[in-house]
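Entry type: protein chain
Record version: 2
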Amino acid sequence: MAGTDRRRKSEAADFCREDAPAIILVEPQLGENIGMVARAMLNCGLIDLRIVNPREGWDRDKAEKCSSGARLVLDRARFFTSTKEAVADLETIYATTARPRDMVKAMVTPRQAAKESVELATRELKTGILFGKEAKGLHNDDVAMCDAILHLPLNPAFASLNLAQAVLLIGYEWYTMNDDTEERYIPETRSKMARPATKEEVIGFYEHLERELDDSGFLRIEEKRPSMVRNIRNIFARVELTLQEVQTLRGIVAFLSNGRSGGPGKGK
């Protein structure tokens, strides 16, 4: 899904926060996966990538090709020889694992982990999320170091995710905790015609439509006319019409009217 505004790409760092959770990859097997993780992180404003003993070293070229330009994350990535070193400065760590472990630990959803991370950040406490190698996941010793297990509630009969997908799902929950995007809105546009129509413009359309409905005989029953007019107006009132849409509707009404009167819009 392509959604990057290339004109704003230089602003990517402005949407990242230093108090965001660290993403710690333990023994990742493919440079391509590291690149896709970097892409997922930058999607969600995460910037602290830590890598523990990547297999066959660090293949920057392969990672960069798969990062879709998330060099900001790759440039800042830090490498460690042990998980213990990678998490040393963190106060709270979540382990991502799908396998049952013989350990008694709290289970949290990505949403709950995000809430906790945001709250901890207000107290200047740093969190991290631990991801194991693609094929086998985390070692038990790594899980033992964590404060809770982060569990993604997915289809229990098919909960398979690749590394970047898991990072994206978890990162998204954190990002939305800090985001004030309206739940429903009409995006702004530079077109003057796409602005919301004024009441004068909308009422002008209503009156145009009603004149044509009167002329066509649709509103011929006098006692029913007021309620029918109100119903028609209420239909359009439920839609947030733009000036362009009002003009299009008036054009449709005019075209149908010309067709009825034998003008250029006349059909069969």
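Comment: The first helix runs from residue 31 to 43.
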